[in-house]
Amino acid sequence: MLRKYSNSRSLRDNIQLGVLTAFSAGMVNVASLIIFFAFTSNVTGHYAILAEEIAKGHWYQVGVVFAWILLFFMGAFVANFIIINLNKKNAYAAHALPLLLEMLCLVTVGIYGQYYYQETLTETEVLVGLMLFAMGLQNGMTASVSNFVVKTTHLTGLTTDLGILFSMFTQKEFRDNPTLVGRAKLLVSIAVSYVSAGVLSALIYHRLQFRVFFVVACVIVVIICYDYSKLRFLQLIKRRNVGKALEAKMEAIHQDQTVGQTSH
Amino acid sequence: MRSKLGAYYIGIFLAAVSGFLLLVSSAASPDQLLAGTWEEVAWEYEKVDKSRGADTLSSKVISEDVKQMIAQDLIVHRAEKWHFWPNGTLSLIAEGDINDAPRKRLNWRLKGRGHILLLHYNDETEESYNIVKLTQDELTLHFYTEMQARGIAKITFKRVR
After folding, report:
1. Which of A195, A244, B23, B147 would be a feasible disulfide site paired with B70, CB 3.0-4.6 Å?
2. Would you tell me the crossing angle of helices A212-263 and A11-36 to the nearest 10 degrees?
């Protein structure tokens, strides 16, 4: 899910990555909406609000919303910066590091919110900013890893693409195109995962409060560990195969030597 | 070349951070603006029955009876003056209260970018209001109601100095 890069990724890789990251984005967005009355997994609305606040001359709010947009941008920047600089050395680490940073941000929000949050406006603005940075990291990572195929924190583009795809499916030639069908499966999976996570977040928030962010962190741990375990498993198999091949080779050499000694 | 590019990136980043600091320090934050005493000026509502007359602002002004009906389930019921203390306490003072002694004390918090006013009463009841306008002299709140005033009800305040 995280090891493969760009065009070497299969549909299955993209669906796994898309579903899990959309799940975390859906949970974060709904939780932040309930707690802070602010969206944190998308910035389209924030651009509209920025324009509105500029028009009204509310310069404090302009500064805050501008900082939020900047933090989302910085998240995507940092994620891709890590990937393009580390990818050749260690592809898995390059893709896992942005997720680790995201997890760190969300756990910080969870701990601070649960134990220290006094509900001041400044705290709210900073925590919303931290979540936007985390979502920028996630979106930057998924988009970069999947060659811009998977984007999971906002559904505007996804809904547009689905509309286009389903209109294409009215013609048989497109219905029979496995690439288009695969794309539709990916987008539907992301949408369903995002909405389900949002519903779950709203349902469990009243019981868990800020601890809902720990659940999201667990989802990210699953993404990181799943790939790590798969990587270790593949390495183990590779090592065993190499070991078996070496044993076979040694056996062959030993037999050759035995045959040589007998003939002499 | 690489260091020049790095300098450009750092320059743009610092300019963005400076712009942010300039913006937030040049204007009062919503919680600073809100602190103080506000007096209700008018209760209005978004929609009126067509049969009631023209859709003018004057026809939208809620009568005292209707206001009491709308507000009977609200925390702010029968308040005339709202005093927002910087420590997050809100004192509701009604007309006729002796020496402006508060009739009710609750907690206020701002959410979002300072556009949502949350009121907590006894840690049980919670109400949210949209802050539509907040200046040194004027405060306008919107809230949803299902009463006769269909749609959004609007409370306008002026600051008491």
Report:
1. B147
2. 160
pTM score of the predicted model: 0.83
pLDDT score of A144: 86
Mean pLDDT across the stretch A164-180?
A: 95
Average pLDDT of span A173-191? 94
Chain A CB within 8 Å of residue B20 CB: yes
Instruction: Indicate if the pLDDT at residue B97 is higher than 70.
Output: no
Contacts of A64 in chain B (CB under 8 A): 24, 113-114
Q: B59 CB near a chain A CB, below 8 Å?
A: no
Looking at the predicted complex, does its ipTM rise above 0.85?
no
Q: Residue B43 has which token pair? A: 């209760």
Q: How much is the average pLDDT of A92-113?
A: 94
- Residue A182 buriedness (CB in 10 A; 0-12 / 13-18 / 19+): middle
Residue A188 region, left (φ>0) first, then alpha (ψ -120 to 50), else beta?
alpha
**Domain B35-160, second-level architecture:** Beta Barrel (2.40)
Options 3.30.43, 3.30.300, 1.20.1250, 2.40.50; CATH for A11-263 is: 1.20.1250
pLDDT digits (tens, 9 = 90+) for A15-52: 988 999 999 999 999 999 999 999 999 899 999 999 99
Q: What is the DSSP string of B23-90?
A: HHHHS--HHHHH-EEEEEEEEEES---GGG----HHHHBPPHHHHHHHHTTSTTTT--EEEE-TTSEE
Which of A66, A119, A120 comes nearest B20 by C-beta? A66
